[in-house]
Amino acid sequence: MVFPKFPLTIPPTDPAKVFEMFRGNFATEILTIAVHELKIFEQIGTKTLNSEELRKRLSLATRPWVVITTILKAFGFLEEFEGNLSLPELAKNHLLEKSPFSVSSYIGLAAQSPAVQSMLEKIKSNKAAESDHGDKGAAFIFHEGIESAMEKEASARFLTLSLSGRAMNVAPVLAEKHPIFDSKVLLDVGAGSGLYSIAYLEKHPQLKAILWDSEQVLKVAKEFLATSKTLHRANCIAGDMFRDPVPQGVDTILLSNILHDWDVNECKILVKRLASALPVGGKILVHDVLLNDELDGPKEIALYSAALFYLTEGRAYSLAEYREWLKAEGMTLTKVIPTLAHCSVLVFEKALG
Questions:
Q1: What is the pLDDT of residues 48-81, one digit of tens each?
Q2: Which of 322, 321, 244, 312 minimizes the C-alpha distance to 284?
Q3: Fold category of 165-350 in CATH
Q4: Pick the CATH number of 16-125 from 3.90.226.10, 3.30.1490.20, 1.10.10.10, 3.40.190.10
């Protein structure tokens, strides 16, 4: 881990391709499970089958089903129209067992691999990768009632520093692409290393920031803040964003790569809590990756969604999903701005009640 240098600078290249290759294993795992464990292609065959009926037949929760079908659609192995699934010629020719051109047995070479079996376990249980390992806790997430690696000093430090590698690339681009000159106090929810707050504090001398995360994570953020010389304009508040009072007096709230850690119900709960803490005209910045509204790609985000499913309680979401949740809380989408590493910032403004 290379510690960031301050002030933060925009990287000369976009690391998106690195992340795409890093997450490529999830394509192998999901395809193998779809072919050999769930037998999705065999169940659809040459007919059309309602997606929700097939999900229930397979006894899968909605979250893993969306992750699986999104990847299969993104790679062109599955088609969906008005909630009904069918197989394109590619899948009929090569993924059905009785086809003379089938490669399903070849794919089966990976069926018993530890990685495939581990992913299958998570798909069936709908639990994050380490949520049942009492000595570790769930990685990347902090929420009362879930034993979290973010509550233990050593693991929280390791994970926070690991995640800061992406943030040091993306944070200065976010601050550059979407400046917040009219903001006075920024609330950084799930602040992590604090690099997104630091990028905004460095760009806006008038700005103050509240970093909200677990106590152990904020120990790392305070180190970065001190090195960046922005500590005097930052207030670190330890707490649970689902249970503790939302810090008051803020006019802009940043959710950078946060909502994708949680399932739909938790996302709606969090958005409601945050929106209610804002004054009229206040903004919520959702900085995250985006699936297509049809949940059929793009490939790189479908793979990231599988990674998020495996490691967290969430998945990747679409612009339509974010817009729906925020609109329900009186927030209007005003801008969508691409940043770096597949991310975009969605700017929502609180309208009159």
A1: 999 999 999 999 999 999 999 999 999 999 999 9
A2: 322
A3: Rossmann fold (3.40.50)
A4: 1.10.10.10
* Residue whose tokens read 């950078």: 256
Strands (E), 14-81: 49-50, 79-81
Identify whether 298 is preceded by a cis peptide bond (ω within 30 of 0): yes
| CA 320 vs CA 283, 295, 326: distances in Å | 18, 10, 10
| Stated pTM of the model | 0.93
- 249: DSSP letter: S
| Cα distance between residue 307 and residue 179, in whole Å | 30
CATH 1.10.10.10 boundaries in the chain = 16-125
Nearest Cα to Cα of residue 278 among 335, 216, 338, 349: 349
Question: 193, exposed or middle or buried, with CB in 10 Å at 0-12, 13-18, 19+?
Answer: buried
Give the amino acid at 218: L
Tell me which residue of 228, 164, 223 sits closest to 8, measured CA to CA: 228
**Residues 120-167: tens digit of each pLDDT:** 999 999 998 765 544 444 555 655 555 566 667 888 999 999 999 999
